[in-house]
Design a protein that fits this description.
Number of strands: 6
Distance between the termini: 56 Å
Strand content: 5-15%
Length: about 220
C-alpha cells in the first residue's frame, strides 16, 4: 500500500475531525477553551520514565545547566498561545510573583552551585510586560543566585514595548542584567493573519524593536 500524499492525509484528517463529539468532551471537562487549556508534550513518554530524584537529576543527567524563568504576565490573549499567564495583573500581583520566584530560586541555587549555566531563557507570558523597576529586581536576584556571565541569556520582547516611554530604559536594564539575545515573537508579517491571532499591534512594531535592540546591543 502506497503512503498517502500530504494533501490526501490532510483531507482525511479534516474529515475525521468532524466525527469528534465536542459536547461529550466538554461534559467530561476534556475540551477547554484557548484561555484555559495547556498543551503538554513529553518525549520519552512518561510511562517510559523511571523514578528520578533531584540529586540524581542534577549530578548525573548533564554537566551543564539550562535555566528557564517563566514570567506569566501579558497585556492580551493571543489565540495561538497556550502558556500559563495572567492578563494585565496589578503591580502588587507582579511583585508577589517576583518574591515567590526568588524563594523558588533559593531552593535550587545551593544544588546548582559550581555548575556551569549554559543558557538562561526568560519567557512567558511576556517578560517585557514588567516595568523597569521590576526588571531590575528580577535580574538583581537572578544574578545573585546564578553566574550567568558565560551563558547565553535570552529574553522575549513583545513588539509593543516601543510604545512605552521608558522602553530605552528597559532595554538598558536588560543589557546590564546580562541579556545577550533578544527573542521577538513575530508570528506573521501579514496584518490580516495577526488580527486572526488577536495581536493588537502591527508588524511595523516588530521591525522597530528589532532595529532598535540590535543598534543598542
Amino acid at each position: 500500500m502506497n503512503a498517502p500524499s500530504y494533501s490526501e492525509a490532510l483531507e482525511f484528517a479534516i474529515d475525521r475531525s468532524y466525527e469528534i463529539n465536542l459536547d461529550m468532551l466538554r461534559s467530561r471537562n476534556l475540551h477547554l477553551d484557548t484561555h484555559n487549556d495547556y498543551l503538554v508534550g513529553t518525549y520519552p513518554p512518561l510511562k517510559a520514565m523511571g523514578d528520578l530524584n533531584a540529586e540524581r537529576l542534577l549530578t548525573q543527567v548533564a554537566s551543564s545547566i539550562d535555566l528557564y524563568f517563566h514570567i506569566p504576565f501579558c497585556n492580551q490573549y493571543c489565540s495561538f498561545c497556550h502558556f500559563a499567564k495572567e492578563i494585565n495583573p496589578s503591580s502588587e500581583r507582579v511583585e508577589r510573583y517576583l518574591v515567590a520566584l526568588n524563594k523558588e530560586m533559593s531552593w535550587s541555587d545551593a544544588a546548582l552551585a559550581g555548575r556551569d549555566v549554559e543558557t538562561a531563557f526568560f519567557g512567558g507570558g511576556t517578560p517585557s510586560f514588567l516595568t523597569n523597576h521590576q526588571l531590575k529586581t528580577l535580574f538583581d536576584m537572578t544574578n545573585q543566585r546564578f553566574d550567568l556571565s558565560r551563558a547565553e541569556v535570552s529574553f522575549e520582547l513583545h513588539p509593543s514595548l516601543v510604545k512605552h516611554a521608558d522602553a530605552a530604559d528597559r532595554i538598558s536594564t536588560l543589557l546590564r542584567g546580562g541579556v545577550n539575545r533578544f527573542v521577538l515573537g513575530v508570528q506573521s508579517l501579514d496584518w490580516n493573519i495577526l488580527r486572526i491571532q488577536s495581536w493588537s499591534r502591527s508588524s511595523e512594531q516588530s521591525f522597530r524593536v528589532d532595529r532598535w535592540s540590535l543598534c543598542r546591543g
